[in-house]
Design a protein that fits this description.
The chain is an alpha+beta fold and 177 residues long. It contains four helices and six strands. Strand 4 and strand 5 form a beta hairpin. Helix 3 packs antiparallel against helix 4. The mean pLDDT is 90.
Length: 177
């Protein structure tokens, strides 16, 4: 039986998430599967991936063929690197402790890069929010100055109008007498 490691589509329209499953290559995409080893949610930034590392490594070592997307996921999670390192141990290039040390070094570097990306994203979001607030405050201040100027003009016009009307009223009362 040819087994594949592939994604099943779940979720609603325009908001899909994908369980990572081991399935017979002849089974339908969303049909029967052998085992579920994780999930992939591309809707978050960065994408959320949960993976049972040991089971994924087991199935890759057994010969299950991952699809292109799953191959990228397994590579990013280090499953394919561990398979490669285990091959080096079998050939006698280095021992199991050296393989584990290399994998741990790679994993810590990868985790640091991911955390840096997340913190940069959070900092960018905070600075964008701060910039939007400052821009809005500047716009509000300009609008308030404009409104105050307009009110001052209206108040000045209102005081000028009664002053002009008062002499006209005096002349009207004088002519009536």
């Amino acid at each position: 039986m040819a087994t594949k490691i592939r994604l099943q589509r779940h979720g609603r329209k325009d908001y899909a998430f994908y369980p990572i499953v081991i399935a017979d290559s002849r089974a339908p995409r969303d049909g029967k599967f052998i085992e579920r080893i994780g999930s992939y949610n591309p809707n978050t930034n960065p994408a959320t991936i949960t993976l049972n590392f040991e089971r994924a490594l087991y199935w890759v070592n057994c010969g299950a063929q991952p699809t292109d997307t799953v191959r990228n996921i397994l590579s990013n999670e280090g499953v394919l690197l561990m398979k490669h390192l285990q091959g080096g141990v079998k050939k006698g290039a280095f021992d199991e402790a050296e393989a584990q040390r290399r994998f741990d070094a790679w994993k810590s570097k990868k985790t640091a890069a991911t955390e840096a990306f997340k913190s940069d994203l959070a900092n960018k979001k905070a600075s964008d929010a701060k910039q939007r607030l400052e821009d809005e405050q500047a716009k509000n201040k300009a609008k308030a100055e404009e409104v105050a100027k307009k009110k001052a003009e209206l108040a000045a016009a209102a005081t000028e109008v009664p002053a002009e009307e008062a002499p006209a009223e005096e002349t009207a009362t004088e002519s009536a007498e």
